[in-house]
Design brief:
- With 333 residues, this protein is α+β, with helices and mostly antiparallel strands.
- It has one domain: Glutamine Phosphoribosylpyrophosphate, subunit 1, domain 1 (4-Layer Sandwich), CATH 3.60.20.
- The protein is built from eleven helices and 13 strands.
- The strands form two sheets. The chain has an eight-stranded mixed beta sheet. A five-stranded mixed beta sheet has the order 7-8-9-10-13.
- Strand 5 and strand 6 form a beta hairpin.
- Helix 3 runs antiparallel to helix 4 and helix 9 packs across helix 10.
- The chain is globular.
- The structure holds aspartic acid.
- Aspartic acid (ASP) binds next to strand 8.
């Protein structure tokens, strides 16, 4: 064996020694999504995957499901920015690296479908704000009311009393540390809850979608990681795909999901690839990381999946022929 080949093999060996846990391997098709709210989202995607449908249609169906729900920090039922306006971010990406995204979209119920329309009918990847809304209206999407959902209106009113913006850790830690306070909602739920999902269809093709109303009480015009390809979502059909949830600014700073996919390319399992990305965030500023949450979720071409978060509390949902359940993510701090 020549030296170059030996060195290459031993670096792969080192990478695999690093695998603290090899995620359970499952049959395709499979869909994974962020949070426990991913369970019905996976079910919607599974309707398509189980009938040999394409992963791009499955992830759109999953995102549409949650955008229809008024009980989640996603879609028009989500929490507003600090001016009381709900602005939506979404993106979608398929196995050929086709992708589309919207940022700061107002009064349109299905940002994920607007993102797909951008992907399929324009030479662009991302439209934002008024331009995105104009594009949506020109393409047959309805203009919806500006009114906040009952829950969002109630919590926004509470938040206005102090108007403090602290992107903090999510609910599990908060419960341990005392009662919820703004920006946590009355019920103690966290101020971030993005839906990111990744699916592999029967043909082995990967796609992903992300949809969110973003960080609650953000500055009007702020766009997080969720609609940014390489930050909130990345798909490389040769290697795998990843999505994220949590404080978007930290994910953007490390091009988070692109990084996770690149770690998988180096031979890391999905879980360890996510862990390496989390470590990158924590290493840069541990003090800051102690008070925020970021979680990554990834799948490779074998249908192995895994997640890793900064803090306790990140969970993800998995649906395949072998299972239909919620998994807790491992965490660093
Ligand atoms: N990543 C989202 C954002 O920064 C928030 C979330 O995950 O809920 O907008």
């Amino acid at each position: 064996m020549d030296r170059k080949k030996f060195l290459h093999l031993s670096s792969l060996g080192l990478a695999s020694l690093n695998l603290t846990r090899i995620s359970k391997s499952v049959q395709k098709p499979i869909v994974i999504s962020t949070w426990d709210s991913g369970m019905p989202v996976n079910a919607a995607a599974w309707e398509i995957l189980s009938k040999k449908g394409k992963s791009i249609d499955a992830v759109e169906a999953g995102a549409l499901y949650i955008e229809n729900s008024l009980n989640c920090c996603v879609g028009l039922g989500g929490y507003p920015d600090r001016d009381g306006i709900v602005t939506l971010d979404a993106c979608i990406m398929d196995e050929k690296a086709n992708c589309g995204a919207v940022g700061g979209l107002e009064q349109i119920k299905h940002p994920i479908s607007v993102a797909r329309k951008i992907m399929e009918t324009t030479p662009h990847v991302m439209l934002v704000g008024q331009g995105a809304q104009q594009f949506a209206l020109q393409n047959g999407f309805q203009l919806e009311s500006k009114e906040l959902s009952e829950d969002a209106a109630k919590n926004y009113k509470l938040w206005l009393e102090k108007s403090q913006y602290h992107p903090e850790i999510n609910v599990e830690n908060k419960k341990q540390n005392g009662p919820a306070a703004p920006p946590f909602f009355e019920d103690g739920s966290p101020n971030h809850d993005t839906m990111g999902l990744v699916a592999m269809d029967i043909n082995g093709d990967l796609s992903g979608a992300v949809t969110t109303s973003g960080m609650a009480y953000k500055i009007h015009g702020r766009v997080g990681d969720s609609p940014i390809i390489g930050a909130g979502l990345f798909v490389d059909n040769e290697i795998g795909a990843a999505t994220s949830s949590g404080v978007g600014e930290e994910v953007i700073r490390i091009c988070g999901t692109h990084l996770v996919v690149e770690y998988m390319r180096q031979g890391y399992s999905p879980e360890n690839a996510c862990k390496k990305a989390v470590e990158r965030i924590v290493k840069r500023d541990r003090k800051k990381a102690e008070s925020i949450q970021v979680g990554f979720l990834a799948m490779n071409k074998k249908g192995e999946y895994g997640a890793f978060a900064i803090q306790k509390g990140f969970v993800f949902s998995v649906k395949s022929e072998a299972e239909n359940q919620i998994h807790p993510s491992k965490y660093l701090i």
